[in-house]
Amino acid sequence: MLSLSVVEAAKCPEKCTCIESDVTCVGANYSEVVNFIRHDHFDKLIIRDTALPYLEPLPLTSVFYLEFSNCQMTTIATDAFKRVISLKQINLDYNLLTVVQEFENLEMLQSFSAKANLISQVSSSFFNNLDTVTKVDFAYNLLDETDFLEPLNQTLVTLDLSHNLFQQIEISNFSQLVHLNLTHNVLRQENSVQLVNLSSLVTLNLAENGISTLNVLNLTSYDTLKTLDLENNHLFSPLDVSNFSSLTNLQLKNNRLTQLKNNRLTELPLIPPSLKKLDLSNNNIVNGSELEFVASNLTDIKFTGNGMTSLNKNAFANLNKINLIDLTENNLTSFDVRFSDAVMDPGFVALSNMHLQLDRSVIANGGRINDEYYSGKAFFAMFMCPHMNIAFSPSI
Question: Which of 124, 143, 165 is the last residue of a domain?
């Protein structure tokens, strides 16, 4: 009889999936789940879509990943995780939490996520003595201050505060911070983004903030940043990001850039030489007659959806590493450009008035363009846009 009881107790609860040491329950009876995890060792416990307004203390367990997502949770007991002895990751996404208070026994915590709640306040002592936390996600909440993060200034690597209510933010002396997401806040006034002594910062996302000039950003160190996302703002020309000396990826999609001139005579170059990927899609760059990129490391350029009517023949002639040029959804009726002799295998040029693409990567090494042959070059066209006059020629 005793043996049978143990077998029954160890049976995976209804609406749960139990695979090796992982338990995932969707809409399950929470009491049954709690009773189940008392009797064995588990690494991951995932509870989703289960009505659980108040989270009581969990039983003694050794799970290292704990998730309660979309559980209508509003309150959590301060000792809820006290007996979860190996807890490293907590996921409380998509609940109804308004405040996050300090919890007991989180000394091993590495990652905390409470995305998409109603959080407007986090206890200033929440992260005290948690010197192992490297990732924090409070996206889609109601936060407007960051003081609670201060205890993590020597450990935090990834921070997501996107879709909150920040009008001003200062993050200083976070020596390990690599990825910072501030998308969709209200960071649009001068010096509203103060990033001081972030010596490891590689990725910065400031999309969807209503930014019109880069004076919103006060960054004391420019030489580590590699990706800067400024999509969906109100930026206009001229725009100078040349001081970002290590930048490789610049996202400027959906802004208000109206003119683009980046030739040898330009006093304020648009981009640093290090840049590899540049997205200028859906701006207002109609006239490309003076567009000429200086020699750089650019490999990918996107001009999709600008309504461009003209393009300088030498626009890309100085780019020795170009691989992708996207000119779809423009108003070009001809395409006659020169490429550097060093460009042996550009990926493709995308051209369209009718949402079609011209692809030159699918044709082998040899092809006929304007009755001339350029063997060994990949400057070849498959005419999917017959209304266009298309020509490729080597630079002179």
Answer: 165
